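Summary for the funding panel

The consortium committed to producing paired sequence-structure records for every protein in the target list. Below we show the first two records in order, beginning with the earlier of the two.
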Amino acid sequence: MSAKVGVNDPCPCGSGEKYKRCCRSRRHLFSSLGKLLANDQLPVRYEISGSGLEPESMIASSAYISRDGIEEVIFEDDITLSTNDVRSHGESGSFSSASLSIDVKTKKAVINTVGNASVRNKNAYQKIQFAGGKKNLKALSSTGWFASVKLKYQRNAEHDYVDVYFGISGREEKVTNDGQKDRPHISFYPDGNGKFIRLSGYKCILKGELTYDTSTSAILPVKLKIEIEDSTEDLILIFQHAQSDGLILAGISFEKKNA
């Protein structure tokens, strides 16, 4: 009969670590994973990330599980998760990532994007409008930051997209050689497909929280956050969804970081 190993004893594997910090914790991990697998509680997850100059992508096409010998479809689609190069005014190389996580019991799916990552499928772009029929939305923070959001039309793709301008009230704006104000802004379509534009020294990261409807294959934005490096606040965009009206940008606001 083997002697029982105490939690503070040297691990029998010979690593030199205490048992509680080595194989004991691994046993707990594998035990927990085993219970999750047995109860169909492990999510289906796809993720891609990168910080290189070349875009990379992966396709999530389907997921199945077997319950009592019967195969059940979690989802079937062609969802492309991509990282993208970020370049503006000579700057390049920024971290981006995209993930899709699906609860196999509820089939509830969540998508998260960081930077210029995108998540796309074959669905057509949805119509976008602002709450109350407004043409643009504005926000002003207590610390002097402002933001203005407008809808613009991309002719070659034949769909609207969101254009967000932001800055600090009273700060002198740079002007380009052709006389245009060189304002910081991010342009994106809110289902996760984004074009990141960094101007005038305002470094920022775009983060998206989206849902994915496994029954209709709809990718729907919930919350988009612009983390501005020079600010103590983040710019938040909140979306709602109406089946007949498509995507609705319900509001924008500044929130303290990590609020």
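The next record, for a separate protein in the list, is shown here:
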Amino acid sequence: MPSVLFVCFANLCRSPMAEAVMKHLVHEAGLTEEIAVDSAGTHCGFPGEEPYFRTIDTLFEHGIKSTCRTRRLERTDLSDFDYVLAMDRRNLTSIERQYGSGSADVRLFLSFAQEAGTIGFDEVSDPYPDGDYATTYETIMTGCTALLDFLRREDTPAP
């Protein structure tokens, strides 16, 4: 079963939004038992809290519920997950510097959408506190759709 961990700075906006969107897409695809999804923050200051209310409101507007509780990235996550996906270069650098390496494929989240040709940039902008949550949602939806397509291809055995 492939496992995916989305990572942003505080685990309040982008990574919990990506977690909720990906879980929603995985559920719709009937793959809940095949793909594990979680999120974390490189500098999570509020472990165990719900995501920022604007994140929850944005997801609700699209019929998606968040069950995420904030947490800090742990060194073991780099071995426990197959994919550790950073929302931007700053967090990717932080992961690499603070946590070293593990067996996970650590990269920018939007790399899958870039490879699929569905997006032309590589970072999810941080909407906290009063930014454009709608645009962040659309970017994350595009990225998660490309990621799910990738995971389906990778998990399909060759004939």
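Regarding this second record: DSSP finds six helices and four strands in the chain. The helical segments are 14-28, 53-61, 77-80, 89-99, 111-116, 133-155.
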